[in-house]
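User: Show me sequence and structure for the first protein, then do the same for the second.

Assistant: Starting with the first protein.
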Amino acid sequence: MISRFAPSTTGEAHPGTLLSALLVWLDARARGGQALLRLEDIDVTRVKQAWRDQMVDALAWLGLAWDATIVQSARTSRHEEALDRLAEQGRLYPCSCSRADRSGGRRAPDGGWAYENTCRAKPLPAGGWRDVHDLAVRVRLPDDRVELVDDGGMDLSQTPAHDLGDPIVRRRDGAIAYQLAVVVDDGDAGITDVIRGRDIAPSTATQVLLQRLLGLPQPRYRHHFLLLEPAGDKLAKLHGSIPWSELRARYSAGELLALLAAAANLIDASPQTFDWARVPTADKVARWDGRDLVIR
């Protein structure tokens, strides 16, 4: 059993980040498996080295030791090899559509606007995907339905090519897109179990189809509850939601672990007592009142 915690390094860690890390770590240790840390830092417009370093520091401060640390930006060659394999299958195409073009159309399972595969007929230039400039590159998915229920009982079944539309695999700015990178990285690391927040659940069927196209094994999935801001949005690093620097100034590592474990209805933050049956499925609200973290 090999699991991973894969945070983006786009801001300070917050209680939701740390809760997810704790659940991944507890699950792996309770089952005698490995837990890897993967720092997802390929979004060149948002990541900072300081936030990457701070993420490592925050997890170490909590006492969450990982069996290996992977830096996603060091894996560009593997991502590009995957693009080459998809191109050989004739599945890549350039896309000029913007988010504004999709706005007001058909809603997707993730709450955004579905992409209608408008540019599917466009061919790559003679130089292939590397010769696409200032346009996104998408992968034409098979029109297959994916039947899938995760380990927590969440139905993830979709026909991704229709429900969400063909995903971007290389962005306009040249960065490898999340959907491709996560599939390649999980495959290369031998990930058998993916534990992550339920906000990522709508992407799972798309990732399963990419795994099939690339000949990669399909992990088991489980999607846990989220910590939300009082307004209802999920806590976000990009928004600076209850940053770790403030939490560290208020709590010891043990105190914060106890708070996070209590939020997950766990007896404590020990692998010996960990049980998914105790973990709630409903999201909770996290508030910072200037002195204390309150999660209800």
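Switching to the second protein now.
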Amino acid sequence: MKAYSTQMEAAQKGIVTCQMKQVLVSENISEDKLLRGLAEGRIVIPSNKNHNNLTAKGVGAGLTTKINVNLGVSEDCCDMELELEKVRKAIAYKTDAIMDLSTFGNTRDFRRCVIDISCVMIGTVPVYDAVAMYGKDVAGIRVDDFFDTVRMHAEDGVDFMTIHAGLNRSAVSRIRQSPRLTHVVSRGGAILLEWMESNNQENPFYEHFDRILEICRDYDVTISLGDGLRPGCLHDATDAAQIQELIVLGELTQKAWESKVQVMIEGPGHVPLNEIAANMLIQKKLCHGAPFYVLGPIVTDVAPGYDHITSAIGGAIAAAHGADFLCYVTPAEHLRLPDLEDMKEGIIAARIAAHAADIAKAIPGAIDWDHAMSKARKELDWAKMMQLAMDPEKASAYRESSRPSDDDVCSMCGDQCAVKRSRQIFEGR
């Protein structure tokens, strides 16, 4: 029998697990710092004991900023083979995590397929599946239905789960006292809100949080405490409802840590540029330094079709100020289910944001990649530049689409290439 149930408990006992060893290989962090971060809850390693082909990664203080890809089938777009192809492509494009947000069809078979082919950590939102699987009106879902679904996802090998436990009746009262422009935009939050209002009961995930902890401890599932009251527009950012929920999430974080269960906190949403740093500070303060997982944040509401850009801007600022995990946003956000090209654009935008933030956070070794690219540019080593590019395929396609007469330069500057001229002056070549 194992001497520990979760990565957190192992770290507190000074045990270096095989998952920790995998993180140490991929990160520039000492064993002592990793163990201390895990023991204190500032780092998590989402790694369900039933996810057999996982290559574990860490999320949190002192580690590189990670990114997540959302995918899954819906009633209007139920092509499971296409979604499985997205899984394969997302891994090839170097995502760190995948969330299966399926809401229709044989969700369990699909989820198991995703886990079977994924070496990256897998997340889900069980409350979606409770609605899809039982085929009941939301009001008719039993409390046990919710928890049976959570356990099923844990048994299947899900590494982290979004649990909207902070949206309790007290937090909902804040919306009534301080009306929002867009009310509740979290899908899981809206489902639980409807259930609570229809049944005149407290959020079961809040009221029976100990049941969640028991399941997560059994399988070493990391709880991603969901932001059911995240702002869905700039008008609602950093309002009373968002902060009220965050206070509750901080209290639940401490309860989880008492049970040795790993925790991440989910965050906004839509936030103006000038409020992002404050949001990161408040979250880290109220949630005791637990890793922060943000959707975006999107910094303007008026760019549908370009929200991978609005999100990357917000994500870079958020991560530079303490966010640890970025959920990608695609050009299709607010419009439709993303296709393969949308997904690629979203992944590259999120990776750019994450890497820019790692440089700002002075993550050891992060800027070495940029220095290598700069050296290749100085040497006019085009093959090396293509190799180092974040998206070598696109960079090579642009290069090949407009070849110059002199292979040393590009077609923009040609003979007036500043790098070539200055190198001749300073280095004689």
